[in-house]
């Protein structure tokens, strides 16, 4: 173990293990593309540039397991988060998505005080272009090992999400008359955010994993996942689909990076590996969604502390409690109109007061999930997914309980619009 510690300093490891023998205690610095020193160009490309093809592809594109419905879909989104070492409060650590809110382009050197209390985790949710029924969202998990070099890992992850949110909000597809019929992809949007960070003069170094998703008004979901953030799709008391982490080795996930040239030269001098993960390396999945589906995108702070079945139990219990999923003689059925659970009351939507404590179905799901993950991360007796992985790869190590980390989850409740809205039910 100790003999390998020097080499591990130059592999993109993450700060997970508290091992007795001398291993890297933090994520080792990842080797990626150095930040450009040229002047910063506009990070909003034309639709033609976004629709360009990649020569290298590592995508997984299964046939949709369920065909999208014929009606128009809408997406009800909320997020919850908490930084490592902070007390979780579901009434304040929550975000309600409003597709009509304007997303402001980020500025280099922007204040950190405006960030949510999510630590090195970051997230974004934005409508795609001018269509409020199409959504772009994602989660990025900053690489903590950069702290050893005096770099704040949150700078990369938060800037990355800010840039993607602004690009998605300003995206305008070219007209069919121009001969372009190819839609924007999740991987291309990830590339936009990464390129913008690489040209941001305030980001000298850093890195993060990333999961980026696009939800279309026809009920299609496309996800580009790089690293060990990821997603899970739940449908009627079952796990319908879930991502697998991308890793180079145990505790070594894929990640996007900005690495100073001086660090690359030092790594080369010591003979270290230079793993240069790019958006083109992201695994891409396309699925068809159904009315009543719940999709969760999250950082590894969730996946390392809750098993998929734990998340399913939380979601199933919550959906049944409010009446969104109901057991019948023919099995579990979805309420025909979910707007009574997912929409903010008109009075709350119009008032200027703080709305963070307002409860919708999606915010209730988000806070229930993050609250459970936070509790599991502090539990020293019940072994979670990360403890199982340590036991698998290092059977002689004594790791029990959860793993303390930043936690961030974005929850989507899928709704196919009905003819008329029913009164909002109390949650």
Automatic annotation (TrEMBL):
Q: Residue limits of the PPM-type phosphatase domain?
A: 99-414
Which residues lie within the region annotated Disordered?
Answer: 34-70, 96-119
Q: Which reaction does it catalyse?
A: O-phospho-L-threonyl-[protein] + H2O = L-threonyl-[protein] + phosphate; O-phospho-L-seryl-[protein] + H2O = L-seryl-[protein] + phosphate
Q: Which SUPFAM superfamilies match?
A: PP2C-like
EC number(s) stated in the UniProt entry for this protein: 3.1.3.16
Which keywords belong to this entry? Hydrolase, Magnesium, Manganese, Metal-binding, Protein phosphatase
Q: Which SMART domains match?
A: PP2C_SIG (SM00331), PP2Cc (SM00332)
UniProt keyword Metal-binding present:
yes
Cofactor list: Mn(2+); Mg(2+)
Q: Which residues form a coiled coil?
A: none
Superkingdom assignment: Eukaryota
- Molecular-function GO terms, alphabetical: metal ion binding; protein serine/threonine phosphatase activity
Q: Where are the transmembrane segments?
A: none
Q: Where is the composition biased (Polar residues)?
A: 51-68
Assigned protein family: Belongs to the PP2C family.
> What protein is this chain from?
Protein phosphatase
This protein's species is Immersiella caudata
């Amino acid at each position: 173990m100790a003999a390998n510690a020097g080499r591990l300093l130059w592999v993109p490891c993450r700060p997970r293990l508290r091992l007795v023998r001398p291993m890297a205690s933090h994520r080792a610095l990842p080797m990626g593309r150095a930040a450009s020193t040229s002047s910063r160009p506009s990070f909003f490309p034309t639709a033609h540039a976004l629709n360009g093809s990649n020569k290298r592809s590592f995508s997984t594109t299964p046939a949709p397991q369920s065909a999208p419905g014929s009606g128009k879909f809408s997406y009800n989104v909320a997020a919850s988060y908490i930084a490592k070492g902070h007390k979780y409060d579901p009434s304040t650590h929550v975000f309600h998505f409003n597709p009509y809110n304007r997303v402001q382009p980020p500025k280099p050197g922007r204040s950190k005080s405006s960030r949510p209390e999510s630590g090195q985790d970051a997230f974004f949710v934005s409508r795609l272009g001018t269509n409020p029924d199409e959504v772009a969202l994602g989660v990025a998990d900053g690489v903590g090992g950069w702290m050893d070099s005096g770099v704040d890992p949150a700078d990369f992850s938060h800037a990355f999400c800010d840039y993607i949110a602004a690009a998605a909000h300003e995206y305008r597809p070219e007209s069919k008359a121009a001969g372009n019929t190819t839609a924007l992809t999740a991987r291309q949007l990830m590339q936009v955010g990464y390129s913008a960070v690489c040209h941001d003069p305030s980001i000298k170094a850093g890195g993060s994993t990333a999961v980026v998703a696009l939800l279309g008004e026809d009920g299609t979901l496309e996800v580009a996942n790089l690293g060990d953030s990821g997603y899970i799709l739940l449908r009627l008391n079952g796990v319908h689909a879930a991502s697998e982490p991308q890793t180079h080795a145990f505790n070594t996930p894929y990640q996007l990076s900005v690495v100073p040239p001086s660090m690359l030269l030092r790594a080369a001098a010591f003979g270290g590996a230079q793993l240069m993960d790019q958006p083109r390396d992201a695994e891409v999945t396309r699925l068809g969604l159904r009315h009543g589906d719940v999709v969760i995108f999250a950082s590894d702070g969730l996946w390392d502390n809750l098993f998929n079945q734990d998340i399913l139990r939380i979601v199933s219990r919550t959906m049944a409690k409010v009446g969104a999923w109901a057991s019948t003689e023919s099995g579990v059925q979805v309420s025909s109109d979910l707007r009574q659970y997912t929409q903010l009351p008109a009075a709350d939507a119009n008032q200027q007061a703080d709305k963070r404590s307002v409860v919708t179905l999606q915010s209730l799901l988000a806070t229930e999930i993050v609250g459970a993950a936070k509790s599991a991360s502090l539990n020293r007796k019940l072994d979670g997914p990360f403890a199982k992985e340590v036991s698998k790869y290092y059977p002689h190590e004594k790791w029990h309980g959860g793993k303390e980390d930043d936690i961030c989850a974005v929850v989507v409740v899928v709704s196919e619009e009905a003819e008329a809205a029913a009164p909002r039910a109390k949650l």
